Amino acid sequence: MTWWSRLSLRGRLVLLGTSGLVVGLGIAGVAMAMAMTYSTRGTLDRAANTTVGEIAALLQEGQTLPSPLPAPAGQVVQVLDAQHRVVAGDRNADLLVPLLHPSEIAAAQRERITVPGDRALQPDPLRVTAKRVEDGRIIVVAVPLGDYNRSLELLKTSLWVTYPALITILVAVAWKVVGQALAPVDRLSASAERITGAATDERLPVPPSSDEIQRLAVTLNHMLDRLATTRARQRSFIADAAHELRSPLASMRIQVEVAAALGDWQTVGDDLLTDLDRLSRLVDDLLLLARADERDGRRVAREPVEMQSLLRNLAKRFATVDVEPSSESLWVEGEQDALIRVVLNLVDNGVRHARTRVVLRAEAEGQEVLVTVTDDGEGIPGPLRERVFDRFTRLDDGRARDAGGTGLGLAIVRELVRRHGGTVRLLDARPGVRAEVRLPRFVDSVM
Question: Could you give the 3-state DSSP secondary structure of residue 199?
Fold first, then answer.
């Protein structure tokens, strides 16, 4: 684990923020020092150029040079002849010894150079420039750098003193501001720690600000809503499953006790087999729903399935089921066993409640295949047609009182159809009910 990963979110944000400020202030300090350097040097160089120009004007007019030469205070001015001998100077100049060595004179004519101040009895270094005039004489002007160096030192000292203090203040301010910004996150964490799942109405506090943290709180609360719905659904499912399993088990126990008392095992054996069949169907349905929930969102192995052939094969199992012919092949992509289970459950439901017959039909509607299962029974009231898809749902009317039904058939149909990207609904057939299943059409297999 690196030092960065050990830092808290607050520490990371403060470090990132202050790092940017430190870099920015550092760049600003360097820029300030450079600007002051160029500004001060420019002022000194302009003063030296002015003096050089004034002395050059005197030489070009052929006037006798005054002694001492006129020059601003602090400057050192010498006029040298072609042999580098001093012919004139100001009050600060040595009239015998040139300020520059012969090798330095040529360099000073190209660019300004710095020489020690003790050559002119000055305490500070000198910035020297030289200019050769037409008659061969050379004008040398030196400007002391004392004030310039002291200004730079003062600036550096000020930066070294104020820079750490400013960084410390910025870190403290950033720590405080980031802490206040992350306070809603701390409250969310504390509230999340208190949520145990025992109460379904426990939710996280939503801060009043319209920012990312508020959106996070809203998103987490929506997740808790979904979890609460799923948990309630699971509890209801478990309770219903326990109730459905308890009824046949209680019946079987009573039958065994009666047989043990009367010795009529033959009759009891037949009844037990009936109850065992019911239990087996219930367990199979429960297992199928559990697998559907477990595989929710996962891609399953699929293959092209021709629905018209599937309907014809299923209709052969029932004497009261007819299939309306279709002029084209209708292909969908999915699990053939699952699609068979969808149609078979709808057909079973229709056969139990039909007066005379059940009609199957498959047709193409755009990019979908529409499969309908229509019976001529009593029908289902409109407000209850959606409810019957819930698990273990039984209606109070005669249509729901089927023999051996588990209350899971339509729930299984909806789960399997949803896994295939389709929809299912019940409509009024007048008389009876028409179940409509819409599945995506597998166009690549259309002949």
Answer: coil
Residue 39 burial (10 A CB sphere; 0-12, 13-18, 19+): exposed
Q: Residue 397: pLDDT above 60?
A: no
Closest CA to 188 of 233, 229, 218: 218
Q: What are phi and psi of 229, to 5 degrees?
A: -65, -45
Q: What tokens does 366 get?
A: 């755009």
DSSP category for residue 75? -
133-136: long-range contacts at Cβ-Cβ below 8 A with a sequence spacing of 24 or more?
133/56, 133/59, 133/60, 134/60, 135/59, 136/81, 136/82
pLDDT in tens, 115-131: 998 888 888 898 999 99
* DSSP category for residue 231: H
Residue 432, sorted as left (phi over 0), alpha (psi -120 to 50) or beta, turns out to be: left
- The yes-or-no verdict on residue 294 having pLDDT over 70 is no
Is a pLDDT exceeding 90 seen at residue 360?
yes
Ramachandran sector of residue 78 (left: φ over 0; alpha: ψ -120 to 50; beta: rest)? beta
